[in-house]
Amino acid sequence: MNARSACHRIAVASRRFTLTTVTALALATLIAPAAQAEIGPPEKPDLKLGFIKLTDMAPLAVAWENGYFMDEGLFVELEAQANWKVLLDRVITGELDGAHMLAGQPLGATIGYGTQANIITAFSMDLNGNGITVSDDVWQGMKPQLTMENGRPVHPISAAALKPVVEAERNAGKLFKMGMVFPVSTHNYELRYWLAAGGLNPGYYAPQRGDTSGTLKADVQLSVTPPPQMPATLEAGTIQGYCVGEPWNQQAVFKGIGVPVITDYEIWPNNPEKVFGVTEDWAKTYPNTHLHLLRALIRAAYWLDEHNNANRAAAVKMLARPNYVGADEKVIANSMTGTFEYEKGDVRPVPDFNVFFRYFATYPYPSDAIWYLTQMRRWGQIPEYKPDQWYLDTARKVYRADLYEQAARSLIEDGTLPADAFPDFSQDNFARPHQGKLIDGVAFDPAQPNAYIDRFAIGLKGKETP
User: Fold this and answer.
1) What CA–CA distance (Å, rounded) separates 181 from 105?
2) Are the C-beta atoms of residues 118 and 78 closer than 8 Å to each other?
3) Which is nearest to 280 in space by CA: 73, 94, 36, 81?
4) Nearest Cα to 220, choosing from 194, 244, 246?
5) pLDDT in the model for residue 114
6) Does 393 have pLDDT greater than 90?
7) Range with lowest mean pLDDT among 16-20, 339-343, 345-349, 393-397
């Protein structure tokens, strides 16, 4: 690298963000660690990565702010995107090198739901992190059905408490509407799971007939709303509830317009949430760059959970900046620091609301992918029966544990992280450990996806088509 090129990169980086000293930035540009030499220098050091303004983009922000990208010889620009569709499209076209993605996006694209493109992920960004919020009026309608203890609702709250409210709307000739962030989002599937577990049908997709509304036979009409717009859309009365990541549930409490009734940790403890995605072609073209990216992101996730979340207060300050999430620090801290506020003043400890590294959170387990695929099938996004082997093969094609392991081994070998921070790489590592039971008690067996799908009272089964 010549002096002019180095100076240019420093100047560009300084314009995009602020580092404490130019000296620190210049030193970080040096390709260091022995493990980097083993992997090889990045083929493409200048990168643009996309994200949505949610707290679970934190590994990207931390990797930038703590200099982990620069340690890997990467000059990264982080750019907020308008919505999940724009983000995915820009990764596919190459305008973005990679992005913070919904865990279902690489799968949906690969199987051709909505947009067809071979997207892979070798890094799970977090576990948990979402909530379901309803308007104050809906909450008042739900309260008579709730069990109370010491003046507070007993959690988890079932969607059965929502059922009379939905039925009253229907009897008045109105549709009950709720928002989620994208058709293949965790939020869509968690909201549908919660509703169905309480006896409400969230509707079906029928792409083979050109119907991608997801509202066939629906008791509750679900539609897409970008995450930062959720509170305003709720306040306007366009929707009566939503499922979204933070800080947009806590924002509803902060503004006094809604009540989060359940977190996704209560629906399924330690459920997979976001991933870091790139196109398969990009990963093949820039294999070293990809591995260096993974190294930086793994380090960032480790820092976020290190010493029992000791760094979370510093992370909150980072995320509150307008170039990242841009929400009030107090709102972000409500969930990021191990608590969660439901009804105003009802603050409860939820230490695992956001998990970034512990429980092997960053490992891309095939079972995560299989669960998403079963929900796509359950609600008709996969309209035809698929054999069990198809689920297993698709999961391993998209969720690239082999690449994750290569990056992780290099971090162990150069002494950056300890071996016990990761799963035992001599094992198969098929199913994600440390997960609790789903709210309806239906056991998830990733080795038998069709048997799992057939256990639900509401949803497609066997060879049914929507």
Assistant:
1) 12
2) no
3) 94
4) 194
5) 87
6) yes
7) 16-20
For residue 136, what are the CA distances in angstroms to 139, 234, 302, 438? 5, 10, 38, 27
Q: Would you say 266 and 258 are in contact if contact means Cβ atoms under 8 Å apart?
A: no
Instruction: Please tell me the distance from the alpha carbon of residue 216 to that of residue 379, in angstroms, as a whole number.
Output: 10
Give the pLDDT confidence score for residue 38 in this predicted structure: 83
Please provide the size of the chain in residues.
Answer: 466
The pLDDT of residue 126 is 98
Q: Render the burial of 323-357: b for 16+ CB within 10 Å, e for the rest.
A: ebbebeeebbbbbbebebbbbeeeeeebebbbbbb
CA atoms within 13 Å, Cβ hemisphere of 47: 27
ω into 383 cis (within 30 of 0): no
DSSP string, 5-52: HHHHHHHHHHHHS--S-HHHHHHHTS---HHHHHH---S--EEEEEE-
- Digit-coded pLDDT (tens) for 399-437: 999 999 999 999 999 999 999 999 999 999 999 999 999
- Decide: 447 and 370 in contact? Cβ < 8 Å: no
Q: How far is CA 104 from the centre of its chain?
A: 9
Q: How far apart are CA 276 and CA 378, in angstroms?
A: 25
CB-count burial class (<10 Å; 0-12, 13-18, 19+) for 37: exposed
Residue 354 and residue 335: Cα distance in Å, rounded?
7
Comparing CA positions, the residue from 429, 119, 184 lying closest to residue 192 is 184
**pTM of the predicted protein model:** 0.91
Rounded Cα distance, 249 and 85, in Å:
22
Q: Which residues contact 189 (CB under 8 A, 6 or more apart)?
A: 104, 372, 375, 379
- Distance CA(389)–CA(250), nearest Å, equals 41
CB 195 within 8 Å of CB 222: no
Asked whether the beta carbons of 320 and 327 are under 8 A apart, the reply is yes
Q: What torsion, rounded to 10 degrees, do the Cα atoms 299, 305, 310, 313 define?
A: 90
What is each CA distance from 264 to 128, 191, 294, 334, in whole angstroms?
6, 9, 26, 16
Residues 286-333 have pLDDT tens digits of: 999 999 999 999 999 999 999 999 999 999 999 999 999 999 999 999
Provide the H-helix boundaries in 414-454. Answer: 449-453
Among 312, 318, 360, 364, smallest CA distance to 334 is for 312
Beta strands in 52-156 (DSSP E): 75-80, 98-102, 119-124, 127-128, 130-135, 148-149, 152-153
CA–CA–CA angle 124, 264, 330 (5° rounding): 90
